[in-house]
Design brief:
about 75% helix, single chain, binds zinc ion, about 0% strand
Length: about 150
């Protein structure tokens, strides 16, 4: 982000980022750090994007680990099931199969949750529209027309 962004490269960037996430007005920040209002607005988008990417990467790593463990468990459940089948212990074989199905279902659920696109986008849009309540209302109305679900924090 921003080779050209004066705030991405600002020596007080961390402080500015903190302030941008608090309730301080752009006006106050612009004065305090001697930067323009437009650069603050521009940089806020960089900040939110980077924050979302960091959160997404963390979630992704945690989910990857969960999926890895579930795949191991799935293999174990299958082995138990096959061994039980070979020794004609059908009750245990069926339990193993049920467990395998349960694990496959859990894995699929995690994989489906790995798509954070909607959350990430709504966060970015909501933050970007904060200074423009009318535009925000227009977006919410348009989304409500298009789909049944609008997150209530919007
Ligand atoms: Zn920036």
């Amino acid at each position: 982000m921003g080779r050209k962004c004066s705030i991405c490269n600002h020596p007080s960037r961390d402080d500015i980022d903190q302030a941008l996430l608090s309730d301080q007005t752009y006006q106050a920040l612009a004065q305090q750090y001697n930067v323009s209002l437009s650069s603050l607005g521009r940089h806020k988008k960089h900040l939110l994007l980077q924050r979302n990417q960091a959160i997404q990467a963390q979630n992704q790593a945690a989910a990857d680990e969960q999926v890895r463990r579930l795949i191991d468990m799935e293999a174990a459940a299958q082995q138990i099931s096959l061994a039980a089948l070979e020794s004609e212990n059908y009750e245990l074989a069926l339990k193993g199969l049920r467990e395998t199905v349960r694990i496959i279902t859990a894995t699929a659920k995690i994989r489906a949750e790995l798509n954070p696109t909607w959350d990430t986008l709504t966060d970015i849009i909501r933050e970007a529209l904060m200074p423009f309540p009318q535009a925000r209302m227009a977006v919410v109305t348009a989304i409500k027309k298009a789909c049944d679900y609008v997150p209530n924090y919007f």
